[in-house]
Amino acid sequence: MKAGLGIEKVDELVAGGPVKLILARCQQRRLMSKYHVVFHIDEGAVARANMVLHNIQNLMDDLGQENVEVALVANGEGVMALLQSPNVQKGQIQKLAERGVQFLACRNSLRFLGLDEADLLEPVDVVPAGVTELTKRQADGWAYIRP
């Protein structure tokens, strides 16, 4: 008779270690109503901003906007992508905001660059520190993407 994996061995595997972690993560995913994704931009290049905005749009199109909560945190020169003028992405940012994307600019970066909150596009909110916002969201289980 071949020795199988007895119930005692299964109980031992589930009681601790990776199996328990996997089961907990599966349960957590079932309880979550949406995916949560935070995008990060810290460069002022227009090409980088275009890439980030297209990545957000593609993610929402793929998962369905009702299934994902998205935030974009801009710090450093990345806040330049969220300025009123000049801004070639203004229309795309507005459309994404209408789909529920949160746009967050770092107050420390604005101050360092000599910018004011009034310089930002309408849908942009300001957080005290971009790195703190990224840390909090990741600690809360948000997926982090820096294209």
Provide a brief overview of the structure:
With 147 residues, this protein is of the alpha/beta class. It has helices at residues 7-15, 18-31, 46-63, 90-98, 107-112, 130-139; strands at residues 35-41, 68-74, 102-106, 124-127, 143-145.
Would you mind describing this structure in some detail?
The protein is about 45% helix and about 20% strand. The protein has six helices and five strands, in the order H-H-E-H-E-H-E-H-E-H-E. The chain is globular, with a radius of gyration of 21 Å.
List the helices and strands and how they pair.
Layout: H1 7-15, H2 18-31, E1 35-41, H3 46-63, E2 68-74, H4 90-98, E3 102-106, H5 107-112, E4 124-127, H6 130-139, E5 143-145
Parallel strand pairs: 1-2, 1-5, 2-3, 3-4
Q: Which CATH architecture of the largest domain? A: 3-Layer(aba) Sandwich
Q: What is the name of the CATH topology of the largest domain?
A: Hypothetical Protein Ychn, Chain: A
Residue ranges: pLDDT <50 for 5 or more in a row?
none
Strand order of the largest sheet: 4-3-2-1-5
Question: Quick one: how many beta strands?
Answer: 5
* CATH homologous group name of the largest domain: DsrEFH-like
Structural class: alpha/beta
**Count of helical regions:** 6
Largest sheet: 5 strands, parallel
Taking the alpha carbons of the first and last residues, their distance comes to 55 Å
- Can you write the helix and strand succession as a string? HHEHEHEHEHE
The residue fraction in helices comes out at: 40-55%
Structural domain tally: 2
